[in-house]
Amino acid sequence: MEPINVFDYEQLAQKRMPAVIWDHIQGGSEDEVTLHANRQAFERLRLRPRVLVDVSAIETHTTVLGTPIHMPIIVGPTAGHMLVHPEGECATAQAAEQAGTIMIVSGFSSRSIEEIHASTQGPLWLQLYSYHSLEVTGQFVQRAEAAGYQAIVLTVDTAHLGKREQDIRNNFQRSRFVPLANFVDNDVSETPLRHLVDTWETVDWLRTITRLPIILKGILTPEDALLALQHGVAGIVVSNHGGRQLDGTISSIEALPEIVQAVNGGCEIYLDSGIRRGTDILKALALGARAVLIGRPIFWGLAVNGAPGVHHILDLLHAELTMSMALAGQPTLSSLEPSLIKRPDQRM
């Protein structure tokens, strides 16, 4: 029977992966408090639907940094897609193109950024860490710009790698299973930032070496969001790295409202971590996200059925979002407002 939601894909994907790979993809850091909090926080939010609204046509098209997309759902950056499928990121990029959206390619992709770009006509952004040195990092950014990538997404929550205990128990090293395709000629560790810790000066430096817009991924406080604006970023991803870095942080969706309020339209805001249903997406959009990023479910679709599986994951989420908007009396993305949401601490 064909999967009817992303949880069906999750169950099927587990059967298709070796346990060490499954643990790596699914696991979080330490006690996985944040990993589970991401889902629980979405579940605590309640919708306040409006009725007797004309929802005969639902509009989900939007733009991100000026690029039109079919739905406010983006393929988030996850490393090593060849862990679950031989075509790796090339298959994922093709699925994103078919779904009419953007893929953010991980800097630790298992196919090179040039191969991935050549495999699709769809728009791509590049996720970036600082690799070994600013020289190596700068060369990588310039490769991405030359290849046709449209934005740089700098991950800023990995000054050290979180303690991912399932990987430690399994002695997991990604390079044992898939190549670091972008750095075959460089001394680059698969552990990001082992040699170089980013600061706000890194963001300033990055702006001097590329004409591409810069997005910071991993912001959880309004204080850092305001600093990001001061340093000229084009966008922010509200993210706790899917619960894989500092354990015990607030969930991304809990952090979103105060960041939206602080930024006040100064840049685009996106969100990831814990999204599994169209209603999750609806809640994030109503609270001010322009689009959401999907992580682990992309692996599930890829493991089950390659590019068609990823495309189906995106279609399922899009269909659920469309249905949720209709049932909530919200025919357009522009109609979504925080009043649609009842938060646990909120009096109406």
From TrEMBL:
Binding residues for FMN: 77-79, 106, 127, 155, 217, 239, 272-276, 295-296
Residues binding glyoxylate, per UniProt: 129, 164, 241, 244
Cofactor: FMN
Domain FMN hydroxy acid dehydrogenase: residue ranges: 1-346
Catalytic residues (UniProt): 241
UniProtKB keywords: Flavoprotein, FMN, Oxidoreductase
InterPro entries noted in UniProt: Aldolase_TIM, Alpha-hydoxy_acid_DH_FMN, FMN-dep_DH, FMN_HAD, FMN_hydac_DH_AS
A Pfam family this chain is assigned to: FMN_dh
Gene Ontology CC: cytoplasm
GO molecular function, one term: oxidoreductase activity
Similarity remark: Belongs to the FMN-dependent alpha-hydroxy acid dehydrogenase family.
Protein name, per record: Alpha-hydroxy-acid oxidizing enzyme
Organism annotation: Dictyobacter kobayashii
